[in-house]
Amino acid sequence: MTTDTGNPDGNRPPHGWAEIPEGGTPTAEPDPDYIALPPGLPCTTKGPWGTDCPEPAIVAWRGKATCARHSHGHWVEGGQVMHWVMRYRPSDTPVE
Which of 63, 68, 70, 94 could bridge across to 45 with cysteines, CB 3.0–4.6 Å? Predict the structure, then answer.
């Protein structure tokens, strides 16, 4: 198992797996359930006591605009909303 965070260029959040299972590869893929937002919209997440999040929103999901901190590991890359998924190679594929 490895502990690579999957953040080669610094703009992606860490993939979130503490350890990568044997044969697994964290892969950044588009998430069609999320929409990239234009700049300038506020994050709609409410904090304790109903306070508004001061960060700008980057993505929307089910009508809720969220900032990078509240987007649950999603980010915008090349105009698409991306997220991490774990992909496994078939057991008969040789390890490189």
Answer: 70
